[in-house]
Design a protein that fits this description.
By secondary structure, the protein is mainly α. The chain has one domain (51-161, 173-313): Orthogonal Bundle (ABC transporter involved in vitamin B12 uptake, BtuC). The chain contains 13 helices and no strands. It has helices at 2-18, 35-70, 82-96, 102-125, 134-156, 160-165, 185-194, 196-202, 206-211, 216-238, 244-256, 260-284, 293-313. Helix 2 packs across helix 12 (260-284). 45% of the residues are buried. The mean pLDDT is 80.
């Protein structure tokens, strides 16, 4: 029943997203649209809404996988350098392969993101002092190093301004023809659900996994591949969307528990709904201008997450 209610809420938010914007399109006009309104829906509004749902689901699940593998509730693509790695991958693609398609850029970003994420997980496994806060701090330091390398690389090639645009996720530029790579998030979501139980076992340690007959390194690589694919495609399509992989998994854990197989659909639905609501608020709060989705998530998500922590501590 909860799944149905959340699905209905997500669809409602998606419909609202279709009719919010500078171009005046009301629900009553849906059956009698003008050519301009039909073009706006087909070229801009529908791709934007689909991208919001895909990125919301994918980034939330990616955060959940990273938290399970690392066994740390504060590890996410934002706090492990994964978003910075994807940004570096796009930068490498733009400079060395300027004529590359969006799909080719996504592949280059995927490779670099996967390599750096594997390096981070290996580095975390070798750290003896594994405090719950210490590991994310290392991840943020690692991300800052990647960001510094990317900034220097961009400065040497005079594209610093373009690189800065990737730091703040923005769905306003999502149009038909430049967003289709976002559908690659779907295989990552499906693969994550299939291996959900294995990710939980892997999070308990290498020896425990091998005793149960699981191939530890293979399962870890599958999980990190899902994370890298989701993050790289998201950054290529809409830019960096921070905190989503941190807020939603913790919210779901507080409400529905930590059983990954059971809570993964909740994670996907909560992520899509949260991103849709943040985007709608960003579009109407200073209408007809927009607030970038990254800023909206940072404010709303931060306050919401703080309230949940305080409520749980009681």
């Amino acid at each position: 029943m909860k799944y149905i209610l959340l699905t209905v809420l997500m669809l409602f938010c998606a419909v609202v997203s279709l009719f919010v914007g500078v171009q005046d399109i009301s629900f009553s006009d849906f059956l009698n649209l003008t050519d301009d309104q039909r073009m706006t829906l087909g070229i801009s509004r529908i791709p934007r809404t689909v991208s919001l749902i895909m990125v919301g689901m994918g980034m939330s699940i990616a955060g959940f996988i990273m938290q399970q593998i690392s066994q740390n509730k504060f590890v996410s693509p934002s706090t492990a350098g994964t978003l910075d790695a994807a940004k570096l991958g796009i930068l490498v693609a733009l400079i060395n392969f300027p004529l590359a398609t969006t799909l080719q850029k996504s592949f280059i970003a995927l490779v670099i993101t996967l390599v750096t994420t594997v390096f981070f997980i290996v580095m975390v496994r070798r750290i003896r002092f594994r405090n719950v806060i210490f590991i994310p701090l290392i991840g943020m330091m690692f991300g800052n190093i990647l960001n510094a390398v990317a900034t220097f690389y961009a400065y040497k090639n005079n594209i610093v301004q373009n690189m800065q645009g990737w730091l703040m996720g923005d769905f306003s530029a999502v149009l038909q023809g430049n967003y289709e790579s976002v559908y690659f998030i779907l295989p990552a979501v499906i693969l994550s659900y299939v291996y959900a139980n294995e990710f939980v076992v892997v999070g308990m340690g290498e020896n425990f996994s091998k005793n149960l007959g699981l191939s530890y390194h293979q399962i870890v690589m599958i999980g990190l591949f899902c994370v890298a694919l989701t993050v790289s495609v998201s950054v290529v399509t809409v830019g960096a969307v921070p905190f989503l992989g941190l807020i939603i998994p913790n919210l779901v854990s507080m409400i529905h528990g930590d059983q990954l197989k059971k809570t993964l659909p909740y994670t996907a639905l909560y992520g899509a709904i949260f991103l849709l609501i943040c985007d709608i608020i960003g579009r109407i709060i200073i209408y007809p201008y927009e607030i970038p989705i990254g800023l909206t998530i940072g404010v709303i998500g931060g306050i919401f997450f703080l309230i949940l922590i305080l409520k749980r501590s009681r």
